[in-house]
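Dear Dr. L.,

I hope this message finds you well. Following up on our conversation about the binding site, I have prepared a predicted three-dimensional model of the protein together with NAP. For your records, I am including the exact sequence and ligand specification that went into the calculation, followed by the structure tokens. Please feel free to forward this to your student if that is useful.
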Amino acid sequence: MQAITSKLGHQSIKHSPAISSFKSLYPLSDDHYYGYVNPRFASNIATGGTGPLVRKGTGGRSSVSGIVATVFGATGFLGRYLVQQLAKMGSQVLVPFRGSEDSPRHLKLMGDLGQIVPMKYDHRDENSIKAVMAKANVVINLIGREYETRNYSFEEVNHHMAEQLAMIAKEHGGIMRFIQVSCLGASPASSSRMLRAKAAGEEAVTRELPEATIMRSAVMIGTEDRILNPWAFFAKKYGFLPLIGGGSTKIQPVFVADVAAAIVSSLKDNGTSMGKVYELGGPDIYTMHELAELMFDMIREWPRYVNIPFPIAKAISSPREFLLNKVPAPMPVPTIFNLDAIQALATDNIVSKDALTFEDLGLAPHKLVKKCLLNLIHEDTIWIIFERLVQLISASFTRFLEYSRVQPDKEEK
Ligand SMILES: NC(=O)c1ccc[n+]([C@@H]2O[C@H](COP(=O)([O-])OP(=O)(O)OC[C@H]3O[C@@H](n4cnc5c(N)ncnc54)[C@H](OP(=O)(O)O)[C@@H]3O)[C@@H](O)[C@H]2O)c1
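The resulting structure of the complex is given below.
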């Protein structure tokens, strides 16, 4: 955090009013050229420039949507759904990644040849950020983390990185849309440090780019989610599930692909979503206990539920936080016993009454049971159901044949 903060403090980005070319992508007209008025940063990709925004084709994967999006955090959970939806409509997606070359590999097949461009970068090297943004006209920030590491604090990841991206996007001069993904419940008054950092991140982004769109997502559910999967693993391993605070906190889980669809929908609108904050929650509100029961019912596991009062849960999760910067070794990733997440559980996390939601983006979020939980049923289970169905049909058919063979005999008698 300190490194980034001091770096940001000394960099040459000017605090000018919002950039003039920050417009909606649709409708497209001649004066919406990007990279025309303002020079772009040097880049290590594509050489011929991207020219004016044009849409060509039928709107499928091999079309040209006119969107060239740099998606920060694309290697994460939401990233894979967002990249897939962007690529499916013929967008070019620049995927900044850190670490191994393998981390963006699964994304490459989601788009047409050359449409998904992984680019190595380092968030502490401003030039590498400029390079991955150079050819883009859209920037989407999905970077976030719900626990601290020895190298990165909540504030650095959830606040300062967002601020830095907004500053660079502003200086860039050709970014037409900036979308910041935040968390439902982000507030400077939250008891969670992560949610306070998210709120500060939102505030910094809108200060730099008032036209930026903020998407506050509720807890996301999907194949790779970080709520149901840890519960299922824990219950399978230990035969019980700890319910922190009795599992009475209310949440409004949302299907991950719906959040991706909301981002894409806001890019496609007429600029109406610019400068607005959306709260993206699913159609139903559950307590943590209800959600766990729903999931375990679906996967046919019935663990015991053990109530863990808040003070005990905090005591169990504290040693990691205490030792984090004291032990010269990486600490385990917290799952169920994450101190900051436990602090957040003290209050319900649901969409506020007057917030803009999916409806305002012309979307209806999927119901959890229908859409997401069915995805969690293992393929084998589907095969077993299929086999049983075949057995049932063939048994009924055999019985029918036997019955029709028996009938003439009965008549003879
Ligand atoms: N998952 C949820 O239920 C949920 C709910 C509400 C809001 N959100 C927010 O939605 C956004 C996307 O969530 P997600 O579940 O897709 O997150 P995720 O799976 O944890 O992915 C986070 C992304 O951020 C990157 N990242 C994390 N720390 C970084 C660092 N220090 N430097 C550079 N990159 C870093 C990760 O890169 P690596 O792959 O290299 O680590 C990854 O690409 C986040 O902002 C999250 O806070 C998530």
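In brief: Confidence is low (pLDDT under 50) at residues 1-21, 26-40, 42-52.

With kind regards,
A. P.
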